Amino acid sequence: MRLALWQGYSVDGDITAGLAQAEAALAAAGAMGAEVLVLPECWLPGYNTARLADLALTRGGAWQDRLSAACARSGCGVVMGYAERAEDGLYNAALALDKTGREVAHYRKIQLFGPREAAIYRPGSSYVTFDLGGVKAALLICYDVEFAPHIAALAAQGVEVVLVPTANMMPFTHVMRATVPAMAANHGVAIVYANFCGSEGDLTYAGRSLIAGPHGEVVAQAHTVPTLLVADLPPRDPGYLSTQAQDFRAII
Question: Which residues are known to be catalytic?
Answer without folding.
Answer: 41, 109, 142
